[in-house]
Amino acid sequence: MKVSLLLLVLLWEAESQPALRPNFVLLMADDLGVGDLGCYGNKTLRTPNIDTLASGGVKLTQHLAASPLCTPSRASFMTGRYPIRLGMAALTRMGVYLFTASSGGLPTSEVTFARLLRDQGYSTALIGKWHLGINCHNTTDFCHHPLRHGFDYFYGLPTTNLRDCKSGEGTVFSTAYRELVFFPLQLIGVTMFTLAMLRFLRLILVPVGVFIILFLLAGLILILFLCFLHYFRPLNCFLMQNYEISQQPMSFDNLTQRLTLEATGFIRRNAEKPFLLFLSYVHVHTALFSSKDFTNKSRHGLYGDAVEEMDWSVGQVLNVLDELGLANNTLVYFTSDQGAHVEEVTSKGEMHGGSNGIYKGGKGNNWEGGIRIPGILRWPRVIQAGLETDEPTSNMDVFPTIAKLAGAPLPPDRVIDGRDLMPLIQGKSQHSDHEFLFHYCNAYLNAVRWYPPNSKSIWKMLYFTPKFNPEGANGCFSTHVCFCFGNYITHHDPPLLFDLSRDPRERSPLTPATEPRFHEILRTMQEVADNHTRSLREVPNQLSAWNVLWKPWLQLCCPSPSSSLSCQCDREKQGQRMSN
After folding, report:
1. What pLDDT is attached to residue 9?
2. For residues 544-574, b (16+ Cβ closer than 10 Å) or e, as one string?
3. Is the per-residue pLDDT at 172 higher than 60?
4. Could you list the active site residues?
5. Residue-level pLDDT at 575
6. Which of 209, 510, 223, 466 is nearest to 360 (CA)?
7. Residue of 265, 259, 269 lying closest to 155 (CA atoms)
């Protein structure tokens, strides 16, 4: 009997211990604000599954995106490195990819956590949004594709969701239309009218050929504009499975359900071996959508419907882990790629952006609202349930954390800016390993954060800030998102200085009169910033004007039997798509 009891105790202990190499489920929302979740203080949006995830693990309340924009933030998340080190930081307005036929993307020389884990025998999958490039030189090289970066399986959007992807939801190109179409057409019209009047009054002899040329130029601009309107959606808004297009253009009907089914299917297929699943949601980036089960069910219109549908999806993933007995051996992480897009307001005045809580600003700028993101980690029996920490952490920290837990050595030939989170979230360390963090607005160093040892103060120094408009607003509404240079910003000399531990809303910049160590603090932070800048190596700019430009020879197209120019197919509806 004693032997039997001993065996039972040993068996119970073995089942209670987590796997030496856990599974990983990484859940990332798109443009979700830190104030949109119940566990972060929202009282009106229903997010019970994400709230349960938080109560079962640790909640990071000063979790920071490496960039306030999608593409660079996701690149840093995948590699544990600042975007500027990867060449994923723009010098121009366009800090993300808008076309699938762009030639830029995450360089093949970069090492992602998926590649590290695949080398350790993990099955890896990306379901949902990628937004880090596809091709370099032709339609078959797939140099930036997820499968070239360590993922065994990919199903989702190669680029991103945009308003232009859904009929009737407006456009992100309104400024471009105004500057490249409407203004030139007006200029040509005024020129033709003026020349015609001068010719009629016989004040100047204007050859007829001039009018023909101007007329043809106006016609060309108009034709190109109409072609863009007609073809943008099918050419850029489509779904892929591995290297094949599965639906072009993408349908929003039950899209979240399809992504969720893919995610849970991957877990089921790999339940007997270690796996990494990155479920990168399309929610809640505009264009907003939801299935009929969630439409008009929330208290916050289309945005609330989308948040609550995403929460349902999180619940489905967690349920499958419980069903298969994998929950105790799986580290689950939930976050957003950056803060909520506060300027997302429709022409009818409907708010399609989220809440950043008490924090100033939002997506596209480095006020706290643009970079504070949800950070939730759950690993039963390893991470204490109900823990909360306000220590500074970064989405870059996921890379070294996963690598260490999986037994994968970090690449020795490059700087890794992330830090292992486990000592902090297990309570073995009470202080963040990030003494300094650097906040970039595209390729421009915008702010420095300093958390001195043995101090409660968190200093933040800003070199420049965006010019919010209209006056008194909490965003750059005239341009739809804030820009990082020129007349769009205000430079500060000396830089603005805040103590976020006392002023998290960033309302009252410190001065020598209010902070005796003002100049000393700025001097220390500037020295560290200079050292950081010297550590950067020159790399090709993946977000240069050339690399973000649409290139017809890189355009992926699913040919239709009726017309090779239509770029339309629906293998999902036809049941032709194969599950891996």
Report:
1. 43
2. beebbebeeebbbbbeeeeeeeebbbbbbee
3. yes
4. 70, 131
5. 63
6. 466
7. 259
